[in-house]
Write a structure and sequence with these properties.
heterodimer, A: 116 residues, mainly beta, 6-stranded mixed sheet, 4-stranded antiparallel sheet, 12 strands, B: 114 residues, 50% strand
Amino acid sequence: AQKVTQAQTEISVVEKEDVTLDCVYETRDTTYYLFWYKQPPSGELVFLIRRNSFDEQNEISGRYSWNFQKSTSSFNFTITASQVVDSAVYFCALSGSQGGSEKLVFGKGTKLTVNP
Amino acid sequence: EPEVTQTPSHQVTQMGQEVILRCVPISNHLYFYWYRQILGQKVEFLVSFYNNEISEKSEIFDDQFSVERPDGSNFTLKIRSTKLEDSAMYFCASSEQGLYNEQFFGPGTRLTVL
């Protein structure tokens, strides 16, 4: 069975601090994809990144960076120099190839509050 | 930029009533999904739909639920006889190529069952 664990329920930081959101996953698939979505207070789900299981290169996009480590089944997300607009719930998700399933399996999310 | 749209944004209904939630996926996408999120909890998969048929459904998606693509643009979720526990945010999503592709989500419909 596939499972995503986001152990941090809530994180609170002060603006300009760096913050890392943890994601640990479980899957028996050899091919799978990992995703991060952002859910701001307005409620929509915003796609941030997709990473496949064969690509362990870290990725940086502006203030966002992602660290994928297959050895520890982790796909952590770091926000550098956090801003108030980063306040949201962040979900890590997994999509595997079990029987061709396309469904996303989400973690429970981490609520990030960035205080001014 | 193309986006997934959903109507209504908020639906209030009485227990036992039927509701239809509507979605317009991104126009060139072929794979469609419904997810739900009970308040404060994680997002849960309900059903996926491709080529005019259900490709996968979860345990939540029982006989009370159905999906339909009545025309070339809309994708609907029907709940035949709503229960209190159906109260949740329902998200529609679409993707271009299905497996492994990012799914783009609509803004959600908040369903409140009284």
